[in-house]
Structures are given as structure tokens and as C-alpha cells.
Amino acid sequence: MQEETRSRFTEYSMTSSVMRRNEQLTLLDDRFEKFFEQFDEDEIGALDNVELEGYIDTDNTRLEEVLSDFYKEKAKNCVKLDTLEPFEDTPANEDSDEEEEERVALVIEEPKEKWDCESILSTYSNLYNHPKLIEEPSKPKPIKISSKTGIPLHVLPQKGLTAKQVERMQMINGSDLPRASTQPRSKNESKEDRKARKQAIKEERKERRMEKKANKMAFKLEKTRQEKELLNLKQNMQGLKLS
Predict the structure, then answer these.
(1) Residue 193, C-beta contacts closer than 8 angstroms, at least 6 positions apart
(2) What is the dihedral of CA 93, 96, 98, 101, to 10 degrees?
């Protein structure tokens, strides 16, 4: 007949357990029981060395032995002065030579790209493809039309002579200067000669005034003619649009 065993934790019978106890379960039960033996009534109590109390003198032999053992352990890890190698001084000249060496700062720059967006596009150029920068075309100035005449402004020449016309007039005046005003006056000039010279100068100035007036009239007539032509052209263009 099998001996009945009880558990220390539950005090239930292990032999009457529903689960069949094989070797592994039996081993597990034994270990569990062995662990709970430490908590039996006779094992419960204060921890070890808890009730130790008292005072020990500094001259106690036991304390001196503990301290001596501690110092011996520390001495093993220390290096004695006799075992240290003597330090050899380096010559002063060698140190000075090393210190006199110049130090040059070396600046390392990041490598730059060899191509930019404009130059890389130039490599795609062929017979039909010519890459270039896109330029924004300048906006044309709006044409302003006169409210009186209906002719575009700033198209006809402005009032007065242009720069080229002024230059041309100066060349003409420079080549055809009045002779009476350019001839040197004689010191022994008589009254009749002086009177004749002044009269000649007056006549030449009168001719220049008449020539200037004729030029102004010619420019005025030419301007009127061009304005009429532009007006007729504008009317003809409007007639073409209506038809």
C-alpha cells in the first residue's frame, strides 16, 4: 500500500490527487516541500546578528587584527617607491626645437559642384536644341492719342528744331557768315567807310532774320501736312473696319 503524503502548504493528501504524479511532478513537489521547510515554526525567528549589541574599545586586539588585515590588502595594490623608475630629463635644446616648429592652419573646403544649372544645359546643345536663359520681354509703352486731333502723341517731331537740324543750321551759318561782320576794321577807317560797313551788317542781319522766319514757316507747313496725312490715314483705317 502506497504511503500517504501530505503537502506542508495545504496539508492535503498528495497521493489522492486527481492528476497522476509522474517523476517530473514528484520532483517538483519535493522541491516545493523543501522550500517550505525553511518556514516551519521552529525556523521562524529573528534574523542572524540582529541582537548583537555592545561596545568595543579601540585598543581591542580583535579590532587591531582586522585593521592590520585591511592595511595589508591595501599595501598589495600599492607600488613602492623603490620599484619606480627614475625620470630622465630631456635636453632643453630638443624641447626648444620642437616648440619652434611653425604650425600652419590647413583649411579644408567642401568640394564644389563643377557644373551649374546654366552650364550643364549647354552640354545638351545640338543642331536643333539651343538652350538659353528665358528673358522676359519688355512691355511696349502704351500709345497715347490726342483728344483734340486724334493723332498719336510723341510721334511727330516736337516744336522747334531737332538736334540734327540745329547742327545742320550751325554748319550752314558757319560757312556763310556775313563778310562785313568778319572783316577786320581798319584804324584809318573814314566816316563813309564806317557808315557803309554798318549798313552792310544791318542788311546781312536782316537777311538772316528773313531766312530764320522762312525756315520756321517751312517746318510749320511740314508739320501740318504730316498731321493731315495721319488724320486721313486714321479715317481710312476706320472706314475699312466698318466695311
Answers:
(1) 186
(2) -130
Taking only the tens place, the pLDDT of each residue in 167-198 is 666 665 555 555 555 666 777 888 888 888 88
Separation of alpha carbons 27 and 33, rounded Å:
10
DSSP for 142-171 reads PPPB-TTT-PBTT-SPPSS--HHHHHHHHH
CA distance 41 to 236: 134
Residue 87 φ/ψ, nearest 5 degrees? -90, 125
Closest to 231 (Cα-Cα) out of 169, 151, 148: 151
For residues 34 and 11, give the distance between their C-alpha atoms in angstroms, rounded to a whole number.
15
Tens of pLDDT, residue by residue over 17-61, are 556 767 888 888 888 888 877 776 665 655 555 555 666 777 778
- Tell if the pTM clears 0.85, that is, is over it: no
